[in-house]
Amino acid sequence: MRLGLNLGYWGAGNDASNLALATRADELGYSVVWVAEAYGSDAPTVLAFVAARTSSVDIGSAVLQIPARTPAATAMTAATLDTLSGGRFRLGLGVSGPQVSEGWHGVRFAAPLARTREYVDIVRAALRREKVRYDGTHYRLPLPDGPGKALALTVHPVREHIPTYLAAIGPRNLELTGELADGWLPVFFSPEYADTQLDHLRAGAAKAGRTLADLDIAPTVPFVPGEDWRVCADSVRAYAALYLGGMGSRDRNFYNRLACRMGFADAAAEVQEKYLAKDYAGAMAAVPLEFLDATSLLGPVERIAERMAAFAEAGVTTLTVAPFVDPAAGDRTLEAALRARELAGVA
Predict the structure, then answer these.
(1) Which alpha helices (DSSP H) does 208-251 contain, by range?
(2) Residue-range definition of the domain harbouring residue 255
(3) DSSP strands (E only) in 200-270
(4) pLDDT in tens, 159-190
(5) Does residue 126 share a domain with residue 28?
(6) pLDDT tens digits, one per residue of 65-110
(7) Residues near 145 by Cβ (< 8 Å), separated by ≥ 6?
C-alpha cells in the first residue's frame, strides 16, 4: 500500500507551509501529492508550483471540476502538467455538486453520469492526439452548424496514457468508476463499511472485462497522530461537520447520504440540521466519535498502524493522508505515517 499526501485548497490549508510539506513528501518517497479545488483556488496552478519544487513524487488533481472546464480544456491542462512534471500527473475528475455547478459555474447539474462518461471519452481522445469528433448527448465536437473543425492536441504528453481517477460516492457513480477509470478517489472511506462500495466498483469493472486489481483505490483520510485518539478526533470535527452538514442542500448532500448508508442516519440528520441553522459548534459536537474513528487515522502510531492494516485489507492501494495538525508538526506527521505503515506490514 502506497502513501499519498492531500494538500487540500490553497489559502485554506494548502499554503506556503504545505508546499514545504509536499517537498518533504517527495524526499520521503511518497507516491503522490494531491491538490483540490472548489470555488477558491484552482488546482492546476498549485500543481504546477508543486511540480516545480519536487522531482519524483506524482502530482494529482483531487479533483478537477467537470463543470468548470470543457473536456478539451481539461485535456490541454493534463497534457501541460504531465509535460511540465516529466510524466508525473494524475488526472482526478469529479462533477462537484449542484450548488457549485449551477451557482458558481452556471452549468446545469443534470445527468451527471452521462456527462462524466462523455467527458472522459473526449479527454482521452484528445490526449491520444486524435482529431476530436464527438456526437454525444451533452457534448458535440465540432458544433454541426458553424465554422468549427475537428482539431488535435498540438503538444505531446510525456506518457501515452495519463491515469484518470474519478471521485464517486453514489452506487451508480461507483459502477461508472469501475468501468471507466484507472482509480477511485473516495472520501469518508471506512474499511468496515467498504464492502458495498467495492461491490459496485466490481460490477462496473466487470462490464469492461476488468477486476478491482485494475484500479488504484486511493481514499483521502484525515490523519492526526497523538496520545489520545479521542482528542485527536476533535481536530477532524469541523471538516466532517462541513461536509455532512453544509456541502449541499438539505435535499441533495451526497456526503450526508453516504453517512446514512454507513449507518449514521440519525446523527447525519442532526449534523445537517444544526449546520444549516448556523449552529456550527452544535454540528461539530453532533458528529459521532465512531464516524470520525471509522473514517480517520487517529492516535498513537501503533493504533494508526492497526487501522492502516485494515485499510490495506479492505483493498486500498494508495492511502492518502490529510494531516489535520499544526503546520509546524507537518514533517513529524509524514514520518509518523511511514512508521505506521511499516508497523502495519503493508509497505
Answers:
(1) 229-234, 237-241
(2) 237-295
(3) 216-217, 220-225
(4) 989 999 999 999 999 999 999 999 999 999 99
(5) yes
(6) 999 999 999 999 999 999 999 999 999 999 998 889 999 999 999 9
(7) none
